[in-house]
Amino acid sequence: MTALRVVVADDSVLLREGLVRVLDEAGFEVVGSYGNAVELLAGLQDIAPDLAILDVRMPPTFRDEGVRGAIAARGLIPGLGILLLSQYVEVAYAQELLSSGSGGIGYLLKDRVASLDELKDAVQRIAAGGTVLDPEVVAQLLGRRHDPLATLTPREHEVLALMAEGRTNAAVGAALVIGTGAVEKNVTSIFQKLGLDDSGTDHRRVLAVLAWLQR
Q: What is the DSSP letter of 102?
């Protein structure tokens, strides 16, 4: 059988190289190793891997680069298996990844991967189109499933927090160093996730802010 082709992105050299060695020992072919998501995306189509393993937080902002990179990678290679490895449970990131389209998906905590066999099994299942979630990630997802704010992405949380300060879309964009169009896209997504339909009477921006303040 042809070995599964895997790419790895993690800003920690020690963790990245250690993961490459572990994957190699498990019988996978590591075809790319990168320090950030931008470098991974630059050569992804030429490499055509079966699965990408990314840290959640990487340069330059150490917030959600891994998730953004994973979603962008799926756009370049539909059905690409994605495994996020994080030091912490990031519920919003897990939800965003799970809603990112077709293909195998995994979210594991670095400190809880107990053995080479466990990692090998996870990679194989994800590459085959399955879903692999750390039990702690599942527990927190279930614990927050009734909270509509829990469905927001980290960026949407930032946008809504600034909206709660009374800032306009232009001011929100300036604070987050993104374009007004990107802010408007996030605001629209916030309205949809909070179930705030445009009724023509209620001010959805005010209702969204109220939901944020009542959290």
A: S
